[in-house]
């Protein structure tokens, strides 16, 4: 285990340890364009270390694009351009020379659809560890058990680690993916509607898990489910389309957003009056 | 019932009969062919036939050197063509943007290559490998010629298989902080392996069955090859030679053909087992 | 998946390797055609390209290079084979999709696969030993255009059937249901609705099979008798271009050898023409490897 932390440290560029006042993630005027089409404009947001931030709002207003900027998955989209200022613990995330591989090990991502690799459960979990340079078997096995326990999957699968991951239920697959992301001890875990492709019971299991992960890492979750945002998040940011471009209309604590919204759009949205 | 309705019903019956007739003819033809091969060939086959060298131009003895030559030629072809094919497929699917003109050019050139008659490969191989590169009639020349021939088959299979790999796997691997080449070699290629193996089945089948491209590249010599630079006669070439050039060689030609068909079936069976095993290992719940 | 460049040396090396694979793979056809052309040049320049079409007879050692009888022989055998295999293949595809119970269709598709997997030399052997004597008993000599057509038909049937099958499978299911909803009979739906709707895919199947037929060498060499002549009936022997190469390469020297490369080039061009037609005909989204 210590071994693994040492490995994770290797990938952390030396930065000044931010004080409690400095947010872990700091976005100022972030805009995203796909070719000539601007999808996200002028987003400013602070995310504190150890918090759960929910990005809410209707489909197609740039929440996922914003999430993609945080671990540079947007690089995969052809002709995608990001401007503005985006920092993780002081490091410039939009620097074109940034080592995105190292970044993605610090900032994990959970997809809407569970995407275990079509290998065995063990192989799914072994891969990122081996990639990170954990050569020896015992620390890998220990890390796998630790992360499977963290997502509550250990008791369900410890006796069939060599079975196909694809044979697990949807909820189990999603928890496996979370465990897989946790293996490298990311500072931030991004979740893109992690429960929306699951049945309600599996969804509730995954949702319960999010609360318990708070101690390990900072979580940014995109969700359409307002009740879910209320249950799991400390802070919320409401994304909305303005003139065809997504932006944040209001952000604050869950209490502010749901009980004392400043914007009428927010008030109407949380009431369920507009979609 | 009106006459019209009766006539229509009769038409239906005639058409239906014709539609069932075609597969019946096909089945009958295949059965006839296979029955002939087995009928004339099975009697000659025993352990000695498989393990000894031919005598009196193939009218006695066995086919051991041909089995070895076939295996070597096919192995060379696969060893050369498979990495090239998979590399090209990865380039097309994972590296080049879909609109790249380089990709279109590569695809089209392989399409044309796939359509070339095998005798043209024979000419090419004879000229380039045997003459220009000085390999002479050899297993190496034959294997390299076959490699050119099966390259497009393997490439297309690998390409389609990689395209079928869910994007979730691809993005999942990258999101875990895998560098792209590791995402490809550790995740995407293993995901696409069943399809690549299916392509291999086709390619190996084609290579084992080939005659025209080999007659003037790996040659006719029916001795046991002792080096890759030796000429060697494959099973298919042996069948050809026995039936065309050896009077009274028919039964032995049939026997060799039967072994060749058996070998094709066994290879296809083994490879499809491998493919299925890999698929099951990674089975996704529907 | 756009950023091809990378700062990681391992990744750069990897991408370079892939690029080399792609370059080698795509240059293979260039090499095949280029080398064949270069080798064909001496004969083409000595005799002139038109000699290969107009000379009366194939006596390369005495400077007569007429390929016409062999071109005609090749085309006749191929078209004859296609005339049989085409309709049978299309009916096979219709059978699999609209007539056969699922299990029968699966078995039949497997059988077509088996037919496609049988080596051409085995078809040739069977034709030579079984078919040719049968034809000879009826109209000697037996080894003939007809024998070639029958053997070839069997060989290209799976090509037609498999490509036609996938063309029909790609049709929207609504087409079939729509016909059924109109109270049409099965054969009406199959041959009046489905086959016309799939016609471009079916045409592709035919042309691909033709390409395969034009290039077939060994099986035809074994059953067509190999006389260089214009056949006057189905029972006359003919020699195909591919068979000619296979027959004479063993001893051809100098200009003769060069002339064989010319016939190889002609063959390649015939097949390439068929492929171009196939590509023009192919409906979007269907790609083929034979």
Question: What's this model, at a glance?
Answer:
The complex is a heterotrimer of chains A (275), B (286) and C (290). Chain A is an alpha/beta fold and 275 residues long.
What are the SSEs and their pairings?
The complex is a heterotrimer of chains A (275), B (286) and C (290).
Chain A: H1 2-10, E1 25-34, E2 37-47, E3 52-56, H2 63-70, E4 80-88, E5 91-92, H3 100-106, E6 107-110, H4 121-131, H5 137-150, H6 154-157, H7 170-182, E7 188-192, H8 200-213, E8 218-222, H9 226-232, E9 235-242, E10 245-253, H10 254-259, H11 264-271
Parallel strand pairs in A: 3-8, 3-9, 6-7, 7-8
Antiparallel strand pairs in A: 1-2, 1-4, 4-5, 9-10
Helix pairs in contact in A: 4-7, 5-7, 7-8
Chain B: H1 3-41, H2 47-51, E1 54-55, E2 60-61, H3 64-95, H4 101-115, H5 118-132, H6 139-163, H7 167-175, H8 180-209, H9 212-215, H10 235-245, H11 250-281
Antiparallel strand pairs in B: 1-2
Helix pairs in contact in B: 1-11, 3-6, 3-8, 4-6, 5-6, 6-8, 7-8, 8-11, 10-11
Chain C: H1 9-47, H2 51-54, E1 58-59, E2 64-65, H3 68-99, H4 102-117, H5 120-138, H6 145-169, H7 173-181, H8 186-197, H9 199-215, H10 218-223, H11 241-248, H12 254-281
Antiparallel strand pairs in C: 1-2
Protein name (chain B): Phosphate transport system permease protein PstA
Subcellular location (chain B): Cell inner membrane; Cell membrane
Family (chain B): Belongs to the binding-protein-dependent transport system permease family. CysTW subfamily.
């Amino acid at each position: 285990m210590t071994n693994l932390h040492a490995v994770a440290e290797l990938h952390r560029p030396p930065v000044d340890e931010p004080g409690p006042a400095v947010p872990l993630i700091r976005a100022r005027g972030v805009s995203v364009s796909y070719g000539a089409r601007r999808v996200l404009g002028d987003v400013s947001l602070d995310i504190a270390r150890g918090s759960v931030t929910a990005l809410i709002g209707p489909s197609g207003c740039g929440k996922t694009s914003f999430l993609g900027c945080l671990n540079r998955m947007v690089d995969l989209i052809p002709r995608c351009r990001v401007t503005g200022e985006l920092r993780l613990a002081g490091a410039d995330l939009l620097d074109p020379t940034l080592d995105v591989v190292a970044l993605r090990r610090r900032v994990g991502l959970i997809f809407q659809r569970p995407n275990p690799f079509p290998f065995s459960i063990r192989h799914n979990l072994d891969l990122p560890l081996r990639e990170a340079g954990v050569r020896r078997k015992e620390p890998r096995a220990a890390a796998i058990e630790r992360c499977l326990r963290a997502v509550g999957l250990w008791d369900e699968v410890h006796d069939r680690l060599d079975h196909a991951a694809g044979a697990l239920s949807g909820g189990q697959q999603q928890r496996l993916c979370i465990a897989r992301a946790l293996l490298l001890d990311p500072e931030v875990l991004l979740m893109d509607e992690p429960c929306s492709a699951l049945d309600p019971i599996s969804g509730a299991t995954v949702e319960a898990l999010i609360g318990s992960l708070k101690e390990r890492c900072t979580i940014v979750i995109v969700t359409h489910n307002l009740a879910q945002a209320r249950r799991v998040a400390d802070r919320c940011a409401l994304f909305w389309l303005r003139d065809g471009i997504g932006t944040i209309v209001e952000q604050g604590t869950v209490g502010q957003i749901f009980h004392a919204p400043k914007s009428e759009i927010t008030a109407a949205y949380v009431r369920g009056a507009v979609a | 019932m009106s006459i019209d309705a009766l006539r229509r019903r009769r038409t239906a019956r005639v058409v239906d009969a014709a539609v069932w007739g075609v597969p019946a003819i096909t089945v009958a033809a295949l059965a006839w062919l296979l029955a002939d091969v087995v009928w004339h060939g099975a009697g000659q086959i025993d352990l000695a036939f498989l393990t000894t060298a031919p005598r009196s131009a193939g009218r006695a003895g066995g086919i051991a050197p041909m089995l070895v030559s076939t295996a070597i030629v096919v192995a060379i072809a696969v060893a050369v063509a498979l990495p090239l094919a998979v590399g090209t497929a990865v380039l097309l699917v994972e590296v080049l943007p879909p609109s790249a003109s380089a990709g279109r050019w590569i695809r089209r050139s392989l399409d044309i290559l796939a359509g070339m008659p095998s005798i043209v490969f024979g000419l090419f191989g004879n000229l380039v490998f045997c003459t220009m590169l000085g390999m002479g009639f050899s297993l190496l020349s034959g294997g390299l010629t076959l490699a050119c021939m099966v390259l497009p088959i393997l490439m297309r299979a690998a390409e389609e298989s990689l395209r079928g790999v869910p994007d979730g796997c691809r993005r999942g691997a990258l999101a875990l902080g895998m560098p792209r080449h590791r995402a490809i070699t550790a995740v995407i290629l293993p995901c696409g392996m069943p399809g690549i193996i299916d392509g291999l089945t086709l390619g190996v089948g084609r290579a084992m069955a080939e005659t025209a491209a080999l007659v003037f590249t790996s040659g006719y010599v029916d001795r046991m090859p002792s080096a890759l630079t030796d000429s060697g006669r494959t099973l298919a070439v042996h069948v050809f030679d026995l039936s065309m050039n050896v009077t009274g060689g028919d039964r032995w030609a049939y026997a060799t053909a039967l072994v060749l068909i058996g070998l094709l079936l066994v290879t296809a069976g083994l490879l499809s087992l491998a493919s299925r095993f890999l698929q099951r290992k990674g089975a996704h719940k529907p | 998946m756009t950023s091809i460049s990378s700062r990681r040396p391992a990744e750069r090396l990897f991408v370079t390797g892939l690029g080399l694979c792609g370059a080698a793979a795509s240059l293979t056809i260039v090499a095949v055609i280029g080398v064949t052309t270069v080798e064909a040049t001496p004969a083409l320049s000595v005799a002139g390209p038109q000699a290969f079409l107009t000379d009366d007879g194939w006596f390369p050692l005495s400077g007569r290079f007429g390929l016409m009888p062999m071109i005609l022989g090749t085309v006749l055998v191929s078209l004859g084979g296609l005339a049989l295999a085409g309709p049978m293949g299309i009916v096979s595809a219709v059978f699999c999709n609209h007539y056969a119970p699922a299990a029968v269709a699966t078995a039949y598709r497997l059988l077509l696969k088996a037919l496609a997997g049988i080596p051409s030399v085995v078809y040739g052997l069977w034709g030579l030993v079984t078919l040719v004597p049968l034809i000879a008993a009826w109209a000697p000599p037996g080894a003939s255009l007809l024998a070639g057509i029958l053997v070839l038909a069997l060989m290209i049937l799976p090509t037609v059937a498999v490509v036609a099958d996938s063309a029909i499978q790609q049709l929207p299911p609504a087409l079939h249901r729509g016909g059924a909803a109109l109270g049409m009979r099965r054969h009406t739906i199959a041959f009046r609705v489905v086959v016309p709707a799939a016609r471009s895919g079916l045409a592709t199947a035919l042309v691909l099979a033709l390409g395969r037929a034009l290039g077939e060498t060994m099986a035809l060499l074994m059953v067509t008798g190999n006389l260089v002549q214009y056949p006057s009936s189905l029972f006359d022997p003919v020699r195909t271009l591919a068979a000619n190469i296979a027959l004479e390469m063993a001893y051809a020297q100098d200009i003769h050898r060069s002339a064989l490369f010319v016939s190889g080039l002609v063959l390649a061009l015939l097949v390439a023409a068929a492929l171009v037609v196939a590509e023009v005909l192919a409906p979007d989204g269907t790609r083929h490897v034979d």
